[in-house]
Amino acid sequence: MQNLADLTAAILAGGFGTRLRPVVDDRPKVLAEIRGRPFLAYLLDQVADAGLRSVVLCIGYMGERVQELFGDTYGGLHLACSQEVLPLGTAGALRLALPSFASDPVLIMNGDSFCETNLQAFWTQHCAKGADGTLLLNKMLDTKRYGRVRVDAEGLVQSFDEKSDYGVSGWINAGIYLLSRRLLLTIPRSRAVSLEREMFRAWIGRGLYGYRGAGRFLDIGTPASYSRAEQFFTPTMQP
After folding, report:
1. Neighbouring C-alpha atoms within 13 Å toward the C-beta of 199
2. Which of 1, 65, 68, 95 pairs with 128 at a CA distance of 20 to 30 A?
């Protein structure tokens, strides 16, 4: 069985960032600056800290800016890029990049959110369950912006609740996944496909589990949430 360090990580970095345009309009969302660093750097640090060595950046809108800034290495990480010609959505981008993934499963991260978690524990549960897919879940007091993920006592995903106008507590999709090649191969080719709206629902009953995390969560998809990023990444002061 592979170690976590042997996995390829894929970062979904191709979105237009339409909602963020009022405050970040000159670069792709993953390059939005936080404390003098692009957001993508924080995700790459998380991957590197977990011991991984290989990352595929699934790029699209203004992807050349990502390539120019990061090149093919970041610290001890080897970086490769999979460039969309037309927007393919979160799942379509993964299907396009599939030939670039050297591991099975693949660790996948959304490029506009960050969740503190123990990736080794996440990987350990995935292996222990014999899962084909595992989603990192995070507890939120108000899930109306994200919708909810329901799992059973064994951790198997049962349903995805839509976003709603009223706020209730629950577990949300925190944007980090382990997905097998078998699942990724079921994504339709050459069209826009959403992980969240299409594929995750299609994979219910096919070995899709949730892992309940307990770390802080941030997404930078709106000006309001982006404004909280500076404080989120403020270094902890040691006594």
Report:
1. 25
2. 95
pTM over 0.85: yes
Residue 236: per-residue pLDDT = 64
Task: State both tokens at 110.
Answer: 């959304």
Note the pLDDT tens digit of each residue in 85-104: 999 999 999 999 999 999 99
Do the Cβ atoms of 8 and 184 come closer than 8 Å? Answer: no
**Whole-angstrom distance, CA of residue 103 vs CA of residue 34:** 31
The runs of H, that is alpha helices, within 78-216 are 89-97, 119-129, 181-184, 200-202
If you average pLDDT over residues 166-194, what whole number do you get? 93
Catalytic positions: 163
Structural domains of the chain sorted by starting position, each given as residue range(s) with its CATH number in brackets: 4-231 (3.90.550.10)
In the chain, the percentage of residues whose pLDDT exceeds 70 is 97
Tokens 């209730």: give the residue: 168
Cis upstream peptide for 105 (omega within 30°): yes
Instruction: Please give the C-alpha separations between residue 213 and each of 36, 88, 129, 137, 223, in angstroms, as whole numbers.
Output: 28, 29, 16, 6, 26
Q: In whole angstroms, how far apart are CA 187 and each of 17, 62, 76, 221?
A: 23, 24, 31, 25
Query: pLDDT tens, 7-62?
Result: 999 999 998 778 888 888 888 999 999 999 999 999 999 999 999 999 999 999 99
